[in-house]
User: Fold Small multidrug resistance pump from Rudaeicoccus suwonensis.
Amino acid sequence: MTAAAVSRWWTLTAADSALSYCDAMNSGISWGTWATLGGAIVLEVMATLSLRASDGMQKWIWAAPVGVGYLGSFICLSVVLRQGMPIGVAYAVWSGVGVAFTALLGALFFHEALTAKIGIGMALIIGGVVLIQASAQSH
Assistant:
């Protein structure tokens, strides 16, 4: 097999895998629902980081982003559930991705520790979310 043939095979295999993943993620749920869930995650992470920045609500300027973020996140999450996403999938993705992003951004903005154990924990969370999503598709 020539290098060009290997390259073409790899490109087609990678593209097929990406399309299969996209089909799996969609699994009858609209991209709008997934986007709304993404919004819920962004708002929840923003609220949690704002809560950290508030220094135990000693800095009142952060109260508005905390309240707006959490309220908006729960509103978006309720819309996602109303649009038919199973609660187990929605909550697993919302909480799992939220935890991972919060840990990463906490390390970036607040110089909090990001150890190998934390990395392994985040990988396990992401793996659990993938398993829950895969399980939901099989039913």
Remarks:
- The two ends are 41 Å apart (CA to CA).
- Residues 3-26 form the longest helix (24 residues).
- The chain has five helices and no strands.
